[in-house]
């Protein structure tokens, strides 16, 4: 996910490396969105529960709560005894077999579970090996669906500004065209149709626990009108609408009103488009619903899930689709969805995913609201800081947005000094903690974020 670095400040950018592992890594191993000669990484010495044992590049050791849940996937924490036991059990059986012409219990059981939990009548599951690849599959699926319907010229996608759907080429093409990576690959990415970013909204919880959404209704109506105009103008060339429901993640932790998703569902229906929802980051309870689409009572045609699917243990994603979509592909000239990863439906990943989803089912309705309530309470003091533009929460997501780019290295150090691991980006210091955080852990995270912002940005 794109992470432009903040401005350098404080100690020299590259102080002498005291961590042996950081020294071996530096200049040898690429890290996400980082130059080879950039700041050296922190070395993980251990992980248990919700805590990471880290060694900083200067040799300082830290025991820190992981406020990021390892990029939003380790919702059950580290060394979870249930997931560990399932992984060991599956390894003792078989860790991998090809999925071409073969099947196995973990994959079938997981597909049954996912289709039973999904919003609306999902009937089929296609396994992928990462979230980005699942988006690729969903886009391919949409093109094949339109061709099967006798509309082979429908080759483009309608999406919104501010989105992020992965780093592979087709997925990049539906990411934000300005703040994404389009400019780095001129001419290589397909040109999609972009509506404006949906207007911001806020979920308000009253003293009695009731929830309601607030937004600028005139801005929402104007946005809806522009979306409808774009769909009408380009309808004959569009295959699907692609969107992150309710919460745009790496595009800026932007929350929008469920009515926007309802508009996109209506537009898709009016123009014969599929509605593809990217629930990779928002699925499995993160936003306060099991799937974020449920905030709008919207049933997608295609849904991508990943991240929390395996609790962060292994890379796995899945594409779910309705029976209508599956039947259209079966009637098509190719009769098959034209994709087939080597590690498709990896048995080890599927076994752990079954256990992870079962844990989510059992715990999220208690844990996510609890974490969200504590984040709201303990992040609110950041609003008094002069360089804070906004504080917002949704489910187990907390965001402090600054008025200027975050000094990432300095805020990271300051948060670690308070016992919290964060990974800020752009103008955001945010947290998506593991659901299993205790109340004390959540308070530590929120107070660490506020304290780090106050220390570095005033």
TrEMBL record:
PROSITE patterns with a match to the protein in the record: AA_TRANSFER_CLASS_3
Localisation: Cytoplasm
InterPro entries associated with the record: Aminotrans_3, Aminotrans_3_PPA_site, BioA, PyrdxlP-dep_Trfase, PyrdxlP-dep_Trfase_major, PyrdxlP-dep_Trfase_small
Stretches the record annotates as Disordered: 1-20
Residues marked Participates in the substrate recognition with KAPA and in a stacking interaction with the adenine ring of SAM (site): 33
Predominant localisation class: cytoplasm
E.C. designation(s): 2.6.1.62
One Pfam family here: Aminotran_3
Residues noted as binding pyridoxal 5'-phosphate in the record, renumbered to the chain: 131-132, 278, 341-342
Plastid in keyword set: no
Residues holding substrate: 71, 164, 307, 340, 423
Gene3D superfamilies from the UniProt entry: Aspartate Aminotransferase, domain 1, Type I PLP-dependent aspartate aminotransferase-like (Major domain)
Record pathway: Cofactor biosynthesis; biotin biosynthesis; 7,8-diaminononanoate from 8-amino-7-oxononanoate (SAM route): step 1/1
Residues that bear N6-(pyridoxal phosphate)lysine: 307
Compositionally biased spans, kind Pro residues: 1-18
Keywords: Aminotransferase, Biotin biosynthesis, Cytoplasm, Pyridoxal phosphate, S-adenosyl-L-methionine, Transferase
Subunit text: Homodimer.
Database matches in PANTHER family: ADENOSYLMETHIONINE-8-AMINO-7-OXONONANOATE AMINOTRANSFERASE
Family classification: Belongs to the class-III pyridoxal-phosphate-dependent aminotransferase family. BioA subfamily.
Entry function: Catalyzes the transfer of the alpha-amino group from S-adenosyl-L-methionine (SAM) to 7-keto-8-aminopelargonic acid (KAPA) to form 7,8-diaminopelargonic acid (DAPA). It is the only aminotransferase known to utilize SAM as an amino donor.
Protein name (Swiss-Prot/TrEMBL): Adenosylmethionine-8-amino-7-oxononanoate aminotransferase
Organism: Terrabacter tumescens
Biological classification of the source: Bacteria, Bacillati, Actinomycetota, Actinomycetes, Micrococcales
């Amino acid at each position: 996910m794109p992470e432009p670095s903040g401005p350098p400040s404080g100690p020299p950018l590259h102080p002498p490396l005291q961590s042996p592992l950081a020294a071996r890594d530096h200049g040898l191993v690429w890290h996400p969105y980082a130059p080879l000669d950039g700041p050296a990484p922190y070395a993980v010495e251990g992980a248990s529960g919700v805590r990471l044992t880290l060694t900083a590049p200067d040799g300082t050791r830290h025991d820190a709560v992981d406020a990021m849940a390892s990029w939003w996937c380790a919702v059950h924490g580290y060394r979870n005894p249930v997931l560990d036991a399932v992984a060991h059990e599956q390894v003792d059986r078989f860790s991998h077999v090809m999925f071409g012409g073969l099947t196995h219990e973990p994959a079938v059981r997981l597909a049954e579970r996912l289709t039973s939990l999904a919003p609306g009548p999902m009937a089929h599951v296609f396994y992928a090996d990462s979230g980005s690849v699942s988006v690729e599959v969903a886009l391919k699926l949409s093109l094949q669906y339109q061709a099967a319907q006798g509309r082979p010229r429908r080759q483009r996608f309608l999406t919104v500004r501010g989105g992020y759907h992965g780093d592979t080429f087709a997925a990049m093409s539906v990411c934000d065209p300005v703040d994404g990576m389009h400019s780095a690959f001129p001419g290589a990415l397909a040109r999609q149709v972009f509506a404006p970013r949906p207007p911001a909204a806020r979920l308000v919880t009253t003293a009695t626990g009731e929830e309601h959404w607030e937004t600028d209704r005139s801005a929402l109506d104007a946005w809806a009108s522009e979306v409808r105009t774009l769909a009408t103008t380009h309808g004959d060339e569009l295959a699907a609408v692609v969107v992150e429901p309710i919460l745009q993640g790496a595009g800026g932790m932007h929350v929008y009103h469920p009515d926007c998703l309802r508009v996109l569902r209506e537009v898709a229906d009016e123009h014969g488009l599929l509605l593809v929802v990217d629930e990779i980051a928002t699925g499995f309870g993160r936003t306060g619903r099991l799937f974020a689409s449920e905030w709008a009572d919207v049933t997608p045609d295609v849904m991508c899930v990943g991240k929390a699917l395996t609790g962060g243990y292994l890379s796995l994603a899945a594409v779910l689709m309705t029976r209508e979509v599956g039947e259209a592909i079966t009637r098509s000239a190719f009769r098959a969805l034209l994709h087939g990863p080597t590690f498709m439906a990896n048995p080890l990943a599927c076994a752990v995913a079954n256990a992870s989803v079962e844990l989510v089912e059992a715990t999220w309705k208690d844990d996510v609201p609890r974490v969200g309530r504590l984040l709201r309470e303990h992040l609110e003091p950041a609003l008094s800081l002069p360089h804070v533009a906004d504080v917002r929460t949704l489910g187990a997501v907390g965001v402090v947005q600054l008025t200027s780019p975050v000094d990432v290295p300095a805020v990271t150090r300051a948060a670690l000094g308070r016992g919290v691991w964060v990974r800020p980006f752009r103008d955001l210091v945010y947290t998506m903690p593991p659901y299993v955080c205790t109340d004390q852990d959540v308070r530590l995270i929120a107070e660490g974020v506020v304290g780090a912002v106050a220390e570095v940005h005033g």
